[in-house]
TrEMBL record:
Domain (Maltogenic amylase-like C-terminal): residue spans on this chain: 16-97
The organism of origin for this protein: Streptomyces olivochromogenes
Top-level taxon of the source organism: Bacteria
Protein's name according to its UniProt entry: Trehalose synthase
Regions that span the bilayer: none
Entries under SUPFAM superfamilies matching the protein: Glycosyl hydrolase domain
Length: 105
């Protein structure tokens, strides 16, 4: 996890924006580092489950329509964000860290 944080400027230098979660046991926020010359923006979505039980949540991510969440630890690409609320299910005390990519991998 430390290595992942070092690879993503958004964690250290980025802005913090909390997102509304449909589930009070789940917190979601964005970390965004400004784009630098020759590099795309570093936009990371963090979703954390504070319950010991699996929890679903819906997030309003319409502002990022067309982007693909790519999980930072395993590199797994999730379905593209669309107009509808984005549904995620997290394991007990589970979390996701996603880079929101503009391009399809």
């Amino acid at each position: 996890m430390i290595e992942i944080r070092k690879q993503n400027q958004a964690f250290g230098l980025g802005s913090y924006t909390e997102l509304q979660s449909s589930n009070p046991a789940v917190i979601a926020f964005l970390r965004e580092a400004p784009s630098t010359e020759g590099k795309e923006d570093d936009l990371v979505l963090c979703v954390h489950n504070f319950s010991r039980f699996a929890q679903p949540t819906e997030l309003d991510l319409r502002a990022f329509n067309g982007r693909h969440p790519v999980e930072l630890i395993g590199g797994v690409r999730f379905p593209a964000i669309g107009e509808l609320p984005y549904l995620l299910t997290l394991a007990g005390h589970g979390f996701y860290w996603f880079r929101l990519r503009k391009d399809a991998i």
